[in-house]
Amino acid sequence: MKWHVKNFNELTNMELYTLLKERTAVFVVEQNCPYLEVDGKDTESYHLFAEKEGEVVAYLRILPPGVSYPEASLGRILVKKEWRGQGLAEELVSRGIDYLKKELNEEVIKIQAQNYLRTFYQSFGFQSISKVYLEDNIPHIDMLLKGDRLETK
Question: What is the overall mean pLDDT for the chain?
Answer without folding.
Answer: 92
